[in-house]
Fold these 2 entries.
Entry 1:
Amino acid sequence: MLDNALRFLSLADANVRFVLLGSLLIGATGGMLGSFAVLRRRSLLGDALAHAALPGVALAYLATGSKALPVLLVGATLAGIVGVLAIQFITQFTRIKADSAIGIVLSVFFGIGIVLLTHIQRSGGGNQSGLDKFLFGQAASMVGDDLVVMTSLTAIIMLAVLAFYKEFKALIFDPGFLSALGFSARRVDALLMGLIVLTVMVGLQAVGVVLIAAMLITPAVAARFWSERLGTMVVVSTVFGGVAGAVGTFISSLAPRIPTGPVMVLVATFFFVVSAICAPRRGALARWRRHRQNAAREQRHHFLRAHVELSDKERRGIFASSSLAAELGWKASRVERLGRKLARQGYVRRSGGRWELTEKGFEEGVFIVKSHRLWEHYLYHRSILDADHVDRPADEVEHLLTPEIIAHLEQIVAEERGINPDQVVNIHGTLSHYRKGGRE
Amino acid sequence: MSDSVRPQGEVAPIQIHDMTIAYHKKPVLWDVDLDVPEGVLVGIIGPNGAGKSTMIKAVMDLIPKASGWVKIYDRPYDQMRSAIGYVPQRESVDWDFPVNALDVVLMGRYGHVGWVRRPSGEDRRLAAEALDKVGMSEYAHRQISQLSGGQQQRVFLARALAQDARIYMMDEPFAGVDAATERAIIDILIELRSQGKTILVVHHDLQTVTEYFDWVIMLNMRVVAAGPTREVFTDENLQKTYGGRLTVLSQAAQAMADHRRGN
């Protein structure tokens, strides 16, 4: 195996170089166009297109007797386009919805393709067997001539994407607006669809009709986790696809009879899984961490607010867990646990078995109480505040109010209710008392 | 020829002649015959399914006309596309799309940029300016799904402003926005009007019609009435538009219910 790896990495073998370059190109174009296809919700259409290409390959061979890649790809392209048109026809002129139409066309065309391949296999001469590589792909069969075809197609695709990037972006986001601007949305859409067709054709020989859609969908979906802008997504997706192609080729070179196409798809899937879990912000771990942090902050707020409210009522600043538990409606053991955690974080400290707020805890507690009371004032008097500040679920609001919003609320309360903002928390003389009673 | 570019309102910005729109051969809007004067703020009102959105989409050739024609400043629409700015319904797009607010506004410049070419620095400056005008500068680099409904609507308005048009078509710009955004939008519409622009707004809140619009088009699958709000926005016309049995109040309730449903 080590021998194989070294031979691969030295790139001494011309065939290895062809296969590596081919897979790289397939992965990269798949990733690039996949971004647009996925965002345009055309990924399934890409799959149907690929399956529909199979009878085209067989018919091209039957018609010409040639197995040259350009000939077969022309057949594949035509059949693919017929398939896509059939889907559009069905959805437009019958009540059948797009998903069913795609399912019907995909299986019918694929079925015809298999029948034709079997027929060719049984009846033809000695050189017929090569066609079945289009089923699951055979990267090792790529030769220099094929590479020329693939490289040219890839160049066309990438140049077209560069040229029409702005049009594609506007088309996918808001086709109606693109038309209103004077562009023909239908032409831009047809162009994008044409590029998706070409992309599928580039990968047909090496990855096969069954799996090529995965090279369109998976890198793009993985890239979306890392990017909030289309340009970034396209670049990341292209890199994911290209790397999946190269690494897939390398892995399949390690031992005989590891098929390249499926391994490429598996590597891309690995990128997807890692992205879905680890990506910052959109990944599962980041979401989980955010959720945990929010929950922890809410708990802390409850504790601190209860402490400040209680000190307001009872005119002292040190409370046992049981008193806080009564205020919160919690079990004392829960208060105890939370208190210990907050003590570690420096919000509270033990004072004779009871809880006292630290400077940090005191400040935050007062802020929470103030937010809460201001919010109540606001809700009660239904003043006008920018809705982008208020349209959050009401029960979460007190934990989300920022100093900026608090300042705004203070202003409103001061203007409309004639209340000095300092009095909002000081209504019962809480704070001065707290400082006196609690700190000594 | 030169008439069509003369700023004073001798030539109607929008002439609609005998326009009928049909979906699958079933007419949804009949025989619209209208001349909209220049420099007015027009409210398009009517019940659900009255053809309000359909009308502005048909004017912009976004849906085919069964019959009739539209002229913009006395010229065919095709030659005058860049004269019209468009604010589609906010729900018509996927806000999870990976672009930021400034990217969206920049799309308003694409018509001026043309095929294949890249937006210039000047286009970017105009887009930033439009974003500033709607009070969204500080959100320029925010991904659009992280904006509130009101902010998204402001971005759409900024995109239309970036189009730098003479006529604006707006499909429910006030739907689901907060009071502050509604105020901000109407202020901008009034400013546009003072610059001699003509603005058509699909609107649902009957209570604000007289306050906001100096012209009104009342639709119910046909034009029930169209003209200066003071003359046309009457109880009688409201009853014709919203159906005889309804009182104005229940019409308003209906309008609000529609509004909530986002239609």
Entry 2:
Amino acid sequence: MPRRINLAEKLTQLRSFYHQEGRPPSYAEMAALFGYASKAAVYGPVEKLIDLGYLQRSGNGQIVFTSKITSQISVLGTIQAGFPSPAEEEMLDTMSLDEFLVARPEATYLLTVSGDSMIDAGIHPGDLVLVEKGGTPKQEDIIIAQVDGEWTMKYFGKDKTGVYLDPANPAYSRIRPRSSLSVGGIVRAVIRKYK
Amino acid sequence: MNPKYSPLMLSSFPRAIAHVDGDAFFTSVEQAIHPSLKGHPVVTGKERGIIACASYEAKAMGIKRGVSLWDAKKIYPRLVVLPSDYETYSIFSKRMFEIMRRYTPEVEEYSIDEGFADLTGMRQVFRKSYSDIAADMQTVIQHELNITVSIGLSLTKSLSKIGSDFRKPNGLTPVAGKHIHLFLQRVPLADVWGLGLNRVKFLQKYGLKTAWDYINCDARWIRKMLHKPGFEIWQELRGTAVMPLSTDAWRPVASVSKSKTFAAPSRDRDFIYAKLIRNFESAFIKLRRHRMRVSELSVSLRRKDYGEAGLRTRLDHAVTTVQEVTPIVRELFNCLYFSDADYRATGVVLGRLEDDRCRQFDLFEDTARIAQARRVGELIENVNGRYGKHRIFLATGLYMNGRKQHDRDQPCWRKTTLLKDETVRKRIKIPLLDILI
């Protein structure tokens, strides 16, 4: 079986070395960094990283970092020594569905919708909404708010008279808070999962 | 000049350490996710039959930790008693520490509801005084998490810890270096972090009453009487920081314990043993989650009259699976169990834990057998990871069957309000709000 080299791990180690020292390590230092007993063992991963363009050999045989290590942060997967897989590297600039839906993870909450007052905005009973707390709502934001003691989800708006809340359903009408309005959060996304 | 009015130092904040303490944390989180509970007396701990945390509304009625649920219900019959939802509390806890980290990278997660933040040097970044930075932290936590925290701000961990307790709830207590002497005169000895009941009683015999009396003792006397810990407190209270912040989010686990009370006391040998083994199974699941192995076991049985007997044993090698310890557990159990007594609970502790990511085999160990036990253990772990805890269990567990679960075992709201495709074992890591819209 060919030896498996975790290049991503090596890259992380090289990056943190670069951040601490501001220079590329020597072969001896790399051996210590990778946990190898001999300098010769370092040769394998170094050759791989030179092939991939992370390292270069300078005129006097010293190892130099390319901008791939010194600038952006990227992660490589484990590859079988022999055939580097380009797939992992190509996916570096992708984000998870989590990152896509949740901009501020500390302030985001889930809420199940039960009413139909926002149905024309595409929010149906049973849908999940992602609500962000702590922000100030802007015109046309969909917000969760407690109006005169009752919780509701509506379009937020402001005019000369003051704050109003608009439904997205002709069966309901505009609300103007009589005594109190407290904003519970701003709706940032709707999730509906089909079978 | 009267020493009472002479400051310990002239500077204000040569260092600035904030102690952020959640106000009635568990119940505050419950009130944040169930807004309908705001303003009502709420307690958590239903599943254990005790009050784990009482909201400020409940505290005002005299319902607090230590009061029995039965007495609490007598004080206020409409009291809301909730089973603990540690998953949601932990999410809120992590979020609180993340918000603190927006202000400084040096944050110590001291416990689920309190932490330290070293703000020293951050004034120039935020162009604000330390008090204003702390106040910002407090406001943001309240806006984003909908819970309140109390903050103490001072030169050392000990001083800021006393500070956060000084005004509660939603308090902010900055103690500048030049005000330490005035502050400590108002702090009774019992409120000093690290001085337990015994030490306080001891100090009172020498006529000491306040923290200020304590720092005015001779350093040599403190060292002699209370040794190094007492001297460290003495230094910290005088504004010299000697306790560092431990900023790693993950602290090594020192021990794992599991204890469960039966629905009704029992003297059935097989049943009690089955319960004990189940505790071990649960403890080992936790152990494996932390990738540790164990070389010390404790077993305890609690009788109906709350008398308790326990035994502890060292293993000749560290183990990772419950199968490897059952013979020893059986022996310990046989020493502890008497057929003429009723028992109400069993408990286990796994001690002397070590990291399992590297391993040195002993010359005399039966490595083949150990490797086999590990393989079986990993297999069970995988199956249970996929199909739910305790799907595969040791056959002794069969003796637990047929017994009704206690009503105290009722799960929390979040575990009964599952979203599509969530299971009792796995839910989305975002708090769900209990609001009808």
